[in-house]
C-alpha cells in the first residue's frame, strides 16, 4: 500500500526536523520513517488528523496479535507520539491520539554475551594477511572499548589517542564520549594502520580518514563488519551466532564482573539512562551464581 502524498509530506517534514534540529543519525531517521509509514498504512482511509485513541489501540492490538513484541510496539508508540507532538506544534493539529497508551508487557530478554574464554578465542587471530590484521584490530577494539557497530565504522584516525590510551567516540544523538583503549587493541590497531590501504580519491584532512577500510581504501559498511565477524566466529570455533553487539554485551558484562562499577560501565557504553545498563547486572548475577554453586561447600547439589 502506498503512502498518500499529504501524509508523505508531513513525514518528510518531521524527518527533516529530526535530522537537522535533533541531529539524529541517518540510520535512526530511516527507522523513524519505517515506523511512520507503518502508521499511515494501518490508518488505511483515515487522515492523520482523524485518528483517535481508539484507532491506535486497535492498531496495537492487531500488531500484538500478529506476534510483535512489547519492546517493538513501545518503540512504535514512542515514534508515533513524537510525530503527533510535532504536528501539534508545527502543523496545527489539536490532539495526540497516542497519549496515555502503553505497549503490552513482554518478558525481559537478557543480552547474549560470550564467556571470557570464548571472547579470547574469537579475537586471537594469528593470520597476518591484510584483511586478517584489519579484522583482528576490529575485534580487539569491539571487546576493548564496547563500541556500537555504527561507532566503529564511523571512527576516524583523528579519534585515536595512543599516548593516552583512549578514543573519542560519537554515539547516539551525536553525543561524544571518551573511552579507554586497551593495550591489545592499541597494538592490533597500530599494526593495521601500518598496512592500511590508502584511498587515492581522498583529499581531505588526514585526521578524517576512516580507521577501517577495505582493500580499495574505502570506509567499511556495517554489513561488511557483520559478515566478517560471523565468518571469524565460525573459523575460530565459536559455536554460536556472533554479531558485533554481542561483543559490546561481552565487554559490559566482563567489566562489570571484574569491577562491579555500574556507573563506569554506563559511561563507557554511552547509555543516557543507567536503567539501560542495569540489564548487565542480571548477567553478572548469573555469573556469580555459577561461581557460588561451584565453590561454596553448602551449594553443592545433592546427587544421591
Give a written overview of the molecule.
The structure is a single chain. The protein is mainly alpha-helical and 304 residues long. It has two domains: 7-91, Orthogonal Bundle (DNA polymerase, domain 1); 116-295, Intergrase catalytic core (hpI Integrase, Chain A). The protein is 56% helix and 4% strand. The chain contains 13 helices and three strands; from the N terminus they run αααααααβββαααααα. The protein has helices at 5-20, 26-43, 53-65, 70-91, 116-123, 130-145, 149-153, 183-195, 222-235, 244-259, 262-269, 274-277, 279-295, and strands spanning 160-161, 166-170, 176-180. The chain has a three-stranded antiparallel sheet with strand order 1-2-3. Helix 1 runs antiparallel to helix 2 (26-43) and helix 6 (130-145) packs across helix 10. The longest helix has 22 residues, at 70-91.
What's this, in brief?
This protein has 304 residues and is mainly α. It has 2 domains: 7-91, Tyrosine recombinase, N-terminal domain (DNA polymerase, domain 1); 116-295, Intergrase catalytic core (hpI Integrase, Chain A), CATH 1.10.443.
Q: What number of domains?
A: 2
For the residues shown, what is the average pLDDT?
84
CATH class bucket of the largest domain: Mainly Alpha
Count up the helices. Answer: 13
Give the percentage of residues in beta strands: under 5%
Second CATH tier, the architecture of the largest domain: Orthogonal Bundle
Radius of gyration using CA atoms only: 23 Å
Would you give the CATH topology of the largest domain?
A: hpI Integrase, Chain A
Query: How far do the termini sit from each other?
Result: 64 Å
Structural class: mainly alpha
**Largest sheet composition:** 3 strands, antiparallel
Output the strand order for the largest sheet.
1-2-3
The CATH homologous superfamily of the largest domain corresponds to Intergrase catalytic core
Q: Provide the low-confidence segments as ranges.
A: 283-289
Helicity range of the residues? Answer: 55-70%
Amino acid at each position: 500500500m502506498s503512502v498518500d502524498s499529504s501524509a508523505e509530506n508531513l513525514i518528510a517534514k518531521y524527518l527533516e526536523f529530526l535530522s537537522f534540529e535533533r541531529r539524529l543519525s541517518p540510520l535512526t531517521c530511516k527507522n523513524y520513517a519505517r515506523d511512520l509509514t507503518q502508521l499511515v498504512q494501518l490508518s488505511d482511509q483515515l487522515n492523520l488528523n482523524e485518528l483517535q485513541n481508539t484507532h491506535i489501540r486497535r492498531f496495537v492490538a492487531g500488531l500484538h496479535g500478529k506476534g510483535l513484541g512489547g519492546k517493538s510496539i513501545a518503540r512504535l508508540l514512542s515514534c508515533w507520539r513524537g510525530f503527533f507532538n510535532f504536528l501539534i506544534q508545527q502543523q496545527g493539529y489539536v490532539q495526540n491520539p497516542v497519549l496515555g497508551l502503553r505497549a503490552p508487557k513482554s518478558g525481559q530478554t537478557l543480552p547474549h554475551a560470550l564467556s571470557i574464554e570464548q571472547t579470547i578465542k574469537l579475537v586471537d587471530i594469528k593470520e597476518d594477511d591484510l584483511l586478517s590484521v584489519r579484522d583482528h584490530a576490529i575485534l580487539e577494539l569491539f571487546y576493548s572499548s564496547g563500541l556500537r557497530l555504527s561507532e566503529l565504522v564511523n571512527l576516524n584516525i583523528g579519534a585515536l589517542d595512543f599516548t593516552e590510551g583512549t578514543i573519542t567516540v560519537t554515539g547516539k544523538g551525536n553525543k561524544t564520549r571518551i573511552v579507554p583503549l586497551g593495550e591489545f587493541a592499541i597494538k592490533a590497531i597500530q599494526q593495521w594502520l601500518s598496512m592500511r590501504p590508502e584511498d587515492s580519491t581522498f583529499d581531505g584532512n588526514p585526521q578524517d580518514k576512516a580507521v577501517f577500510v577495505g582493500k580499495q581504501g574505502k570506509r567499511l559498511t556495517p554489513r561488511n563488519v557483520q559478515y566478517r565477524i560471523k565468518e571469524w566466529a565460525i573459523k575460530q570455533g565459536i559455536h554460536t551466532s556472533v554479531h558485533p553487539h554481542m561483543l559490546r554485551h561481552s565487554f559490559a558484562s566482563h567489566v562489570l564482573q571484574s569491577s562491579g562499577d555500574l556507573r563506569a560501565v554506563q559511561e563507557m557504553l554511552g547509555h543516557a539512562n543507567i536503567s539501560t545498563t542495569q540489564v548487565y547486572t542480571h548477567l553478572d548475577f548469573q555469573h556469580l551464581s555459577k561461581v557460588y554453586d561451584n565453590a561454596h561447600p553448602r551449594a553443592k547439589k545433592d546427587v544421591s
